[in-house]
Specification:
Strand content: 5-15%
CATH superfamily of the largest domain: Phosphoenolpyruvate-binding domains
Number of helices: 20
Largest sheet: 8 strands, mixed
CATH architecture of the largest domain: Alpha-Beta Barrel
Bound molecules: phosphoenolpyruvate, magnesium ion
Length: 541
């Protein structure tokens, strides 16, 4: 048995077989190869790629529908396209390099040509070309297909991007363990929202021989056991049963009011990242959706989601929440959240770059499509719009004017829309400092403590090396929250917290005393928080 220590992202215990998630190694050029032989290797790899894509297409059509399966059909056509194979042949003949490098190089060149086009449709195809070329390279290198095994598994990886995480099938995962990553990353947030036992920053060197080995994740104590001893398994099984019992006890809070002992109503809402989360009883029982991270719709798709596709999702969320407020945050991509089908300009400091509302303002067509979908869905329930990463009244003014214009366009087209409240994420120090002015412009504030912490403490939430700064910096973040609550109260608008700090039951009383009206948390924390709120009395002591 080997024991590795790491940081817990989500409690809970998982036991099962390991699956290793391997990122492909960079492609090296080897000169002096026989072009004829390399060409035959390339052709054979292309045939294998086509066979893989046909299987994937059929699987996707069965499991997620014909529309989503189309991407694999398009990839298959690219693998068979003479434009791609001719480009590879040319590289082989001119450079006498290995087929792996020729396929990679030709794919990159074609992708760059597409990226240089104005049309966003063709730009988006660049990622498809890279995907197809990458598949051929992987086959040439003899690497396995990057799919999850049939049965449930514990996934071990060096690191995972949010888009890799969202694409994993929930039912296949028992737990997730990464050697990199930090507890505040979006990958960690996804694991929490799925209530998956998960560890990040685990001290381990991934070893190929671990594939299929039995393992256990102790999310409570931050431990990974490889090939655990029977006594350890026995102890973990007992604790797992105890945890399930406690979770069942919390379900007693189903349908109860979220109010303090002395009767102050608090809204305890759920953070979601897609419609699947609405299948959880606890989400429907929450007092609303305090944060719908809409970017995950974009990350799990194979192309920019259309207005119709988004409308269907937002409408369904509004209807299923049956009159409770659903706060849809406009797409917050950029930084660590990058869709596979769009290559963003590389940035030196992406967390300080073109993310959140900055991305939306730079891509008005994408923003317009989303706003149209939200405004239309608002006719079917109580929807609010939340704008991420706001830094100034000028920027907010631009955003609100854009939304007004989109609403006018819909009215002119006689398209049915509904009324929406509009709010902003308070997650940059400048939004806190200018809170009095921003509060005059919107209906509510939602404090994003994850980013507010990273930007206040200048501590990258992705970087585990600086995570120790976070506890000591908490008083600074609490002052930021207090200032925001005051700005909101002075202007008579409501304020909530939707960052991870909202789930910290040790702070609940402080938050309520500051005037926070809504706490929005990962689904499985709703009942725990409702219980905590019920223990608090805000009467003057
Ligand atoms: C936050 O920053 O606290 C937040 C809720 O947004 P996200 O974690 O998605 O950046
Ligand atoms: Mg944020």
């Amino acid at each position: 048995m080997i024991i590795c220590r790491g940081n817990s992202v989500c409690g809970g215990i998982a036991m099962g077989k390991i699956h290793l998630w391997k990122k492909s190694l960079p492609v090296e050029a080897t000169k002096g190869r026989d072009p004829e032989q390399e060409w035959r290797r390339f052709q054979e790899a292309c045939r294998t790629a086509v066979r893989e894509l046909v299987i994937l297409e059929e699987k996707a059509a069965r499991e997620v529908g014909e529309a989503d399966a189309l991407v694999f059909e398009a990839h298959r056509m690219m693998a068979e396209d003479p434009g791609f194979s001719d480009a590879v042949k040319e590289v082989l003949q001119k450079e006498s390099v290995n087929a792996e490098y020729a396929a990679y190089f030709a794919g990159e060149q074609l992708a760059e040509q597409l990226e240089s086009l104005e049309d966003s449709y063709w730009k988006a195809r660049a990622a498809d070309i890279r995907d197809v070329a990458g598949r051929v390279v992987r086959i040439l290198k003899g690497e396995d297909c990057q799919c999850l095994p049939e049965g449930p598994c514990i996934l071990l990886a060096q690191d995972l991007t949010p888009s890799e995480t969202i694409q994993m099938e929930k039912r296949s995962l028992l737990g997730v363990v990464t050697s990199g990553g930090s507890v505040h990353s979006h990958t960690a947030i996804l694991a929490r929202s799925r209530n998956l036992p998960a560890l990040v920053g685990v001290e381990m060197e991934l070893d190929e021989n671990w594939e299929g080995l039995s393992a256990a994740v102790d999310g409570e104590r931050g431990l990974l056991y490889l090939d655990p001893d029977p006594e350890v398994l026995e102890e973990l099984a007992l604790r797992k049963a105890e945890l399930s019992r406690k979770e069942e006890e919390l379900a007693a809070w189903f349908g109860k009011k979220s109010e303090t002992k002395d009767g102050r109503q608090v809204r305890i809402c759920a953070n979601i990242s897609g419609l699947d989360d609405l299948d959880l009883t606890v989400v429907l029982d929450a007092d609303g959706i305090g944060l719908f991270r809409s970017e995950f719709l974009y990350l799990e798709a194979s192309d920019w989601p259309s207005e119709e596709a988004q409308f269907a999702v937002y409408k369904s969320a509004a209807e299923r929440m049956a009159g409770k407020r659903v706060i849809i945050r406009t797409v917050d991509i950029g930084a660590d959240k990058q869709p596979d089908y769009f290559s963003m300009e590389p940035e030196e400091n992406p967390a300080l770059g073109c993310r959140g509302i900055r991305f939306s303002l730079c891509h008005p067509e994408i923003f317009r499509t989303q706003l149209r979908a939200i405004l239309r869905a608002a006719a079917y329930g109580k929807i609010s719009i939340l704008y991420p990463m706001i830094t100034s009244p000028e920027e907010l003014g631009q955003v609100l004017a854009f939304t007004t214009q989109v609403k006018k366009e819909l009215d002119t087209e006689h398209v049915l829309t509904g009324e929406v409240e509009q709010g902003i994420m308070i997650e940059t120090p400048s939004a806190v400092l200018l809170g009095d002015r921003l509060a005059e412009m919107v209906d509510f504030f939602s404090i994003g403590t994850n980013d507010l912490t990273q930007y206040t403490l200048a501590a990258d939430r992705q970087n585990s090396l600086v995570q120790d700064l976070v506890p000591a910096g908490l008083p600074a973040v609490l002052r930021m929250i207090q200032m925001t609550a005051r700005s909101a109260a002075n202007q008579g608008i409501w304020v909530g917290i939707c960052g991870d700090l909202a789930a910290d039951t040790g702070l609940t009383e402080d938050f309520l005393r500051m005037g926070i009206e809504e706490l929005s948390v990962a689904p499985h924390s709703v009942w725990k928080l409702r219980k905590r709120v019920g223990e608090i009395s805000l009467d003057p002591i």
